[in-house]
Amino acid sequence: MKKLLLPLAIVALVAYACQQGPVRYTQNSPEIDTIKKLISNYNAKNFDASMFADTSKTYYNTKDNPMSAEEAMTYHKENDNNYASRGFLSDHQEYEMVLTDDGESWVNCWLDWKGTLKANGKEVVIPIHLTYQFVDGKIVREYGYWDPTEIVLTLQQLEAEAVKTEQEETE
Fold first, then answer.
1. In terms of Cα–Cα distance, which of 72, 144, 148, 145 is closest to 117?
2. Which of 41 and 18 is assigned the larger pLDDT?
3. Strand pairing partners for 116?
């Protein structure tokens, strides 16, 4: 019996060591599908917050002052006033889901966004990184990072020109 116990223990140890844990990285998951739907909704100007948890927090180009999902949708609607057209381009989209050492599920995506300013027809293309944390199939955190400099400077220039024109007309 003792002779049989050692080989059984070795087989059990090998079987335990060979068991694969959860997938830590993938490019196909229900969470990625959720983000693709969210991007599609954004492009269609369908501002649906149902993919977000009630307590979700959204951070755009900041780590402070989070927005709720509804506030983020309002942010997008208000920004739409500046554009004749806008949306994420379908080329070169990259998505990945990562399960962290702490057991957190995150979806990262790298996209190109294109907008045409309503005021002057200027087209702007901006690379954007978005990352989303999921809990129980819902987004609980969203972080977005991009360089808005070209748009901000153009809008400031247009505003300055409008003010100058208005001042000249009242003189």
1. 148
2. 41
3. 85, 123
